[in-house]
Amino acid sequence: MNTKEKDSKYIMHTYGRYNVALKSGKGAAAFDEDGKRYIDVSSGIGVNSLGYCDEGWVNAITAQANTVQHVSNYFYNEQPSNLAEKLCTLTGLSKACFGNSGAEANECAIKVARKYSFDRYGEGRNVILTLKNSFHGRTVTTLSATGQDVFHNFFFPFTEGFKYAEANNLDDVKNNIDEKVCAVMIEVVQGEGGVVILDKEFVQGVARICKASDILLIIDEVQTGIGRTGKLFAYQHYGVKPDLVTMAKGLGGGLPIGVCLCGEKLDSVMSPSTHGTTFGANPVVCAGANYVIDKISDEAFLNAVEEKGAYLEKKLLALDEVKSVNRLGLMVGIEIDGDAHDMAEKCVANGLLIITAKALLRMLPPLTITAEELDEAVTILEKTLKENTK
Q1: pLDDT confidence of residue 390
Q2: Which pLDDT belongs to residue 151?
Q3: CA 42 to CA 27: how far, in whole Å?
Q4: pLDDT band for position 389 (cuts 50, 70, 90)
Q5: N or C: which end of the chain has fewer CB within 10 A?
Q6: What percent of the chain has pLDDT over 90?
Q7: How far is residue 284's CA from residue 83's CA, in Å, rounded to a whole number?
Q8: Using alpha carbons only, how large is the chain's radius of gyration in Å?
């Protein structure tokens, strides 16, 4: 059996696969088992932030794997300690908690928020307000936090304690705030929701409401963080300082990681046994993340991300078949006529690895992608769109 046949026979069908089996990659280029080359503007859904097999990243994780590959969280290790220091210093936040995914990071934030409120106000103040059209993960609790009805099925009973307000509607947020709400959790760009960029006035208004009532502001940066939007974190575009920030995807550069950062007033909320995970703070993963954060946090690197994003947007808007573009940095949603998923499959057949978000095509290219590779991606997209509008 070949790779696709084995996958079909032995792996649960929880993903709608594209018809390609990838074998290797370098930078923004990927190669399938037959040697066919693709330009990848999905980067593993924003995970391969430095592209495939960045030399420095490979060296960092290899060196750590040759030193010690795993350490129980009962013991100290320099890699997570160094990473936590960098993240806290760069954000002005206070403490980090390590996990293995964005959903885990969000679970941690939810637990911190509820425990803070329990410790300070007692039982009953445990509701978390999220936004309609949001996406916060696929565990039972983070599915419940997700503000999309399509995800609230099959897996009953879902975790209680979540309400949903309209994005960019401050009045609706106010109307949903009561004495039971302990936190508001938002993505400043709703990635899975269709690359919806929240208004600055709305985000700042939510922050004011939270501050006035000691309601914690959680910002989910799982997809938007680690340079994706041209800032280290997307909330930095908005002039707010959250109480909790979650991240994953691009931080690991290709290895699984999730981190929840908290501000100073929360830094003693969690104590031994209140949270944990076997593989959180894995030294090899953190070695890769240390390399990623050192490279991406450079101001010149972040400026280049925005420049590449603006260049890509201009090229996309020049295509007759593109109706509009939603963009912040290199987080891009493309509105076209026709079915986006169908078009994405046809792009893949033509050598462009692209994904979707709701009714849009979505690009999350490696932050290291070159102008020439962006040109190649747009050329393939244009070719595919023209083939299907004849």
Answers
A1: 61
A2: 96
A3: 12
A4: confident
A5: C
A6: 99
A7: 12
A8: 21
- Amino acid at site 187: E
179-203 pLDDT, tens digit each? 999 999 999 999 999 999 999 999 9
Query: Taking Cα atoms as reference points, which of 197, 199, 194, 203 lies closest to residue 173?
Result: 203
Specify which residues 130 forms β-bridges with: 164
- Cα–Cα separations (whole angstroms), residue 117 to 22, 93, 121, 214, 242: 47, 19, 5, 9, 16
CA 125 to chain CA centroid, nearest Å: 28
Phi/psi of residue 307, nearest 5 degrees: -65, -40
Nearest CA to 227 out of 125, 313, 331, 84 is that of 331
Helices (H), the chain: 3-10, 43-46, 55-65, 78-91, 102-121, 140-145, 170-176, 200-212, 283-296, 299-317, 340-349, 371-387
Q: CA nearest 125: which of 177, 172, 165?
A: 177
Give the mean pLDDT of 76-99.
98
Determine the Cα–Cα distance for residues 177 and 354; give it in Å rounded to an integer: 39
- Residue 385 phi, psi dihedral angles, 5° rounding: -65, -40
Do residues 235 and 219 lie in contact, with contact meaning Cβ atoms separated by under 8 Å?
yes
